[in-house]
Amino acid sequence: MKTRLAASAFALAAGTASAEPAATLPDAVARTAPALAAYAADDIFGGEWTAAALSPRDRALVTFAALVTRHETGNLARFAELALDSGVTPGELSETITHLAFYTGLGNATAAAEAMAPVFDARGIAAEELPGAEVAFLPLDEEAEAAREATVSGNFSDVSIGVVDNTREVLFNDLWLRPGLAPRDRSMITVAALIAAGQPEQMTFHLNRAMDNGLTQEEAGAMLSHLAFYAGWPRVFSALPVAKQVFESRGN
Fold first, then answer.
1. 98 occurs within a structural domain
2. Which of 18, 33, 60, 214 reaches 20 to 30 Å from 165, CA-CA?
3. pTM for the complete prediction?
């Protein structure tokens, strides 16, 4: 193990690691924490990122969402570059920031936009090319929305009618219907954000919604494994019981 780790650390320090995600690791890591650089080379870039259960494109989008959620703006530009090079479109990254403003807070999304702006500038991506406020919405699943609204309104209308109304009008009758991000991807980044934020109590609804929107159980499990490296094992272990319950309920 020590020999393998030492060799991997040298490869990263020398810039010879071939995996594209390895470019997201700052050179300073190999100089100051060579063991960490080795784990990153072997277990993250050479292991997790190459696992077939989740595509490189989805891994890049999920990681980007986790970094936005965690306000890790120092490394965000590298992951924006990786996401674009992995098949995530500029419009999808733009929509991800917009979406996560409502699930991780405006400050996190604003900071992410500031960190990503130089990447868009360098690639010649203009604001006019990105999804604007006025779009043709996707169809609303009226039955599912009615059930969601009844639950939220019945439980919380006498606590905060503003939250109930904004959840209906701004989120589910607007944000979630924007076509710039596929429903599956919108759900996937929401679940990733909840895991990264350490809010597993909100996962049941959104993981079920993600799977209704096309995320498979294998992909969801792979996302948990991936996020352990970017959000930490404790947050993922807090999310695992919720995922287990969702999987079992759908299996039945």
1. no
2. 214
3. 0.91
| Residue 88 located in a structural domain | no
**Domain contains 158:** yes
CA angle 194, 72, 65 (to 5 degrees): 40
DSSP string, 136-193: -PPPP-HHHHHHHHHHHHHHHTTT-HHHHHHIIIIIITTGGG-TTS-HHHHHHHHHHH
If one counts the domains in the chain, the total is 2
Using the structure block, give the residue that is written with the tokens 């272990």. Answer: 237
Q: Residue ranges of the alpha helices (H) in 71-141?
A: 76-85, 90-104, 106-122
Q: Six-digit token pair at 228?
A: 């352990």
Structural domain of 156: 141-177
What's the rounded Cα separation, in Å, for the pair 247 and 203? 12
Instruction: Quickly count: other Cβ atoms within 10 Å of residue 1's Cβ.
Output: 7
**57 touches 32 (CB < 8 A):** no
CA distance 99 to 105: 10
Residuewise pLDDT in 10s, the chain (252 residues): 444 444 444 344 333 333 389 999 999 999 999 999 999 999 999 999 999 999 999 999 999 999 999 999 999 999 999 999 999 999 999 999 999 999 999 999 999 999 999 999 999 999 999 999 999 999 999 999 999 999 999 999 999 999 999 999 999 999 999 999 999 999 999 999 999 999 999 999 999 999 999 999 999 999 999 999 999 999 999 999 999 999 999 996
Residue 26 CB contacts under 8 Å (≥ 6 apart), including other chains: 75
Residue 19 within a domain: yes
H or E element that contains 69: helix 56-69
Out of 123, 157, 177, a domain closes at 177
